[in-house]
Amino acid sequence: MSGAKLLFPAVILLGVYVFIHGHLSPGGGFQGGTIVATGFLLMLLAYQDFTVSHHVLSFVESFAGIFFVAIGLLGFIDGGTFLQNFMPVGTLNDLFSGGVIPIIYILVGFKVAAELTGLIYTVLNEKD
Amino acid sequence: MKNELFEILQFGIYSASILLILIGLYAVLTKRSLIKIVIGLSIIDAGIHLLLVAIGYINMGTAPIFSPGYEDAAATMVDPVPQALVLTAIVIGFAVTAVALSLVIRLYRHHHTLEIDEIKNLKW
Amino acid sequence: MVGTPVLLIAIPLLAAFLIPLLGMLWKELVRIIPGIVLAYMMILSASLLYYVLENGSIIEVLGGWRPPIGINLVFSPLTGFLTTIMTFLGFIVWLYSYKFKRNVDFEPAKKYFIFLMMLVAGAVGIVLTGDIFNQFVFIEIVGISAYALTAFYTGRNSAEASFKYLLMGSLSASSLLIAIAIVYSQLGTLNMAEIASTVHLMDPTFKVIAMIFFIVGIGIEAEIFPLNGWAPDAYTEAPGPIGAAFAGILVKAGIYAMVRMVFTLFDVPGAFDFLLAIGLITLIIAETAAVKQDRLKRMLAYSSIGQMGLVIVAFGIGTIEGVYAALFLMLNHAIIKPLLFLSGSYLVFNSKDKYISEVNGLGKYLPITSILFALGAFAIVGLPPFAGFWSKLSVLMAAANEGMLLIIALILMVSVVEIVYYFRVVNRIYFFEKSKDVVPHRPSFNALLSMIILGILIIVIGFYPDSVTGILHKAADDLMNTEQYINNVLSVGKSLTN
Predict the structure, then answer these.
(1) What is the rounded CA–CA span in Å between residue C313 and residue C79?
(2) Low pLDDT (below 50) residues in chain C
(3) Hey, which chains touch B, using 3+ CB pairs under 8 Å?
(4) Between the N and C ends of chain B, which has fewer C-beta atoms within 10 Å?
């Protein structure tokens, strides 16, 4: 019986906080994703029978990547150049401000978390 | 007096980053175990990132973040561009280290040794 | 026009993310989608090139931030020409390796095609971008794809070759980052056009130091001496079509980055002489090393390094005829060397160590492949009426115009050395007896088709070089004309009201 089960939701929450508030405080997609992957690493090290489904990770990773390029192309069709801003830029320091950047950070956070978890899982469970 | 302190600090940071680069270079060039060479590559990356961030420093500048109470920080911010460059460089360095370590695992499985002197099947 | 330049990078990225998903639906899609994407890139790049030759460069702004603050892509005659060659070669490599040795299984095929698309997309990115940090990121993308592709086979030696490449690549990327740090701290900008217009304000010591770090950083991809130690191992251990992709796509991007730095970004006097010297050293050392090789792909790798040395010599001559000759050499090398790699890969298909002595007598068993290999060998040493003759002639004429007689003598001596080692192999193919334990493997239909396309191109360019000289003249003109480059980019910055 280890305390990892109690810490796991807290670490995930911290990671999600970091990549949602990427445009307001230090952090962002890559940092938040790495923190979430560290939470998964904690669970993988503490419990022998904790598994993550490889298919779900592949799905999340591919979807996040596709949505990223899709948002870039949407900016293309809407404004004129790739990755251009097309959402309303709110007032400074609001959570819902900054145009398209929070969405991109969330997608990058999911992608990095899925990728790193898959990597750790593959390395830890190698037969032979 | 504060100005001299900042000058010494900046000099210290620049020399620390160059020292890190040289230590990493020494590790890559002279160590014989594969893992130590990969660690040396990581240390070189750390030194260069420190150098890049230190270049963006403006005297008596604050952190480049807008927060309530500091709305006019734009006048005295440090340069945020090198910090964005370093974020990208950290991610790239991490990906290269991951590829390097997977190659080290494969090399170990074939040759059963981590000494780089033993692994010389391909010669001139 | 079917699109804009940014799609040349965004669409392969999208396809690379889609492949694992669609692979779960239907396994053949993993092979078909890269083909569609590469064909689309080839058509888009060719149509944009046609547009640009009439109307001048396209400057595309990314993200809505105008230059020099934002990142911009530059599709000019020079960069468009190189992009068209690269995407065409990417398509040919896909056609050849549809089902090749290890990627007939699903899992390796998924990785192989994803990395192949990232390789082509990254190389196109190096050529198209107008911002030095963006170029660094694309160099790293290409590097990681190349490390993974070199280690594709699970034999004993590929991991060692890939690790060697990774070590040298990492060190040179660090050196490139130091150069970017120096340039940013002195000039305050990362945009290439802005650097070109303000570089005369930079302290000369810093300029030289930054240029040295740049050359060490980019010289790895451009395979200049002494930074090409990784190349023979990597080309040998990589799969045959990937060796062709390295020789045709990767080095072209590296040489473009180096040339852009010397011609446009920095104005250090003596840079051209340095290019001349280092090109000559690379040429001589690589060609003499190629003579004493006894493995086919290693010999082709050294020959490729030598040809790139010749290209750098032609760039180092410094005049517009020199640049024209260098671009013509790059075009011919990009068509002929992949043909040699692709046909050579079938000539030694079933052998473990790929010794040259194993191609004895295969002229009877693999007739079309041997004819194509011989055609490639004749073309690359410069025999008329094949394509290589016109490019070698232009180099010699450009050198003669400047009165560099020593260079002409060295190039001719090296050409004789090339003839020796290529004709040795052709001789073995046709006039020796096949040994009993060599089992020839007939190439599949798609591989034959890709090789025949390259062979036809060689003959067409050889008999009718005027088909490409118009494009080459415009591209050479574009490289020499720095003010036009600066004006094109910075005027977009002033006119956008975003």
Answers:
(1) 20
(2) 497-498
(3) A, C
(4) N
